[in-house]
Specification:
Methane Monooxygenase Hydroxylase, Chain G, domain 1; 77% helix; DUF47 domain-containing protein; Put_Phosphate_transp_reg; mainly alpha; 6 helices; 0% strand; PhoU-like_sf
Length: 206
């Protein structure tokens, strides 16, 4: 059985938790964007950009700790994969908000709110799961539920694409909106990557 308790190991758990908590912040900014007047979106984008930078800092801290640690709580490649996937989530959420502002989207298509609600729920579950990496307990329901949410996100995404291509939007608007909903779908995929990595870690450690 792998020895877990070393002076260096506990910091990884704290850093993963901090990264996941920052993703919750990002998901709340996405929710805020939904109800915001177009004139208020730039300010939300600025706050999202700051959150994304905080996420980058958290990821770099994990990588630095990984490179300077002789003993790690679980496999190095899994630590790298988990940190990278958490960082991807923030990158995609920040990109979606930035595109809304850059493209000067007047109104987001119906169904985007469902995408964002799925992301917000996945963010909450991920933040709740990260502290459990210390004990490798109460994680099975987490990855099962996140995978279910990703399947739900896929269905919402397909419906959104069908709506965008129904002929009611002009071609340029379709291109703009499709890129936004595609990026939100990538965020959902990244949540699944995090859950799959956690499952891999738990299986190896069992």
């Amino acid at each position: 059985m792998r020895l877990r308790l070393t002076p260096r190991e506990t910091s990884f758990y704290d850093m993963f938790s901090a990264s996941a908590d920052n993703i919750v912040t990002g998901s709340k900014l996405l929710m805020e964007l939904l109800g915001a007047d177009p004139s208020a979106r730039a300010e939300i984008a600025d706050r999202m950009r700051a959150a994304e930078h905080a996420g980058d800092d958290a990821t770099h801290a994990i990588f630095h700790q990984l490179n300077s640690s002789f003993i790690t709580p679980f496999d190095r490649e899994d630590i790298y994969s988990l940190a990278s996937s958490l960082d991807d989530i923030m990158d995609f959420m920040e990109e979606a908000v930035d595109l809304v502002v850059l493209y000067q989207v007047d109104q987001l298509p119906k169904g985007v709110e469902q995408q964002i609600e799925v992301l917000a729920r996945a963010a909450e579950l991920t933040a709740e799961a990260m502290p459990n990496l210390r004990t490798m307990t109460n994680l099975t329901e987490y990855w099962i539920e996140v995978n279910r949410l990703e399947n739900q996100a896929d269905q919402i995404h397909r419906k959104l694409l069908a709506h965008l291509f129904n002929g009611k939007y002009d071609a340029i608007e379709v291109l703009k909106l499709k890129q936004i909903v595609d990026v939100l779908e990538e965020a959902a995929d990244a949540f699944e990557h995090v859950a799959n990595t956690v499952e891999t870690i738990a299986v190896k450690e069992s």
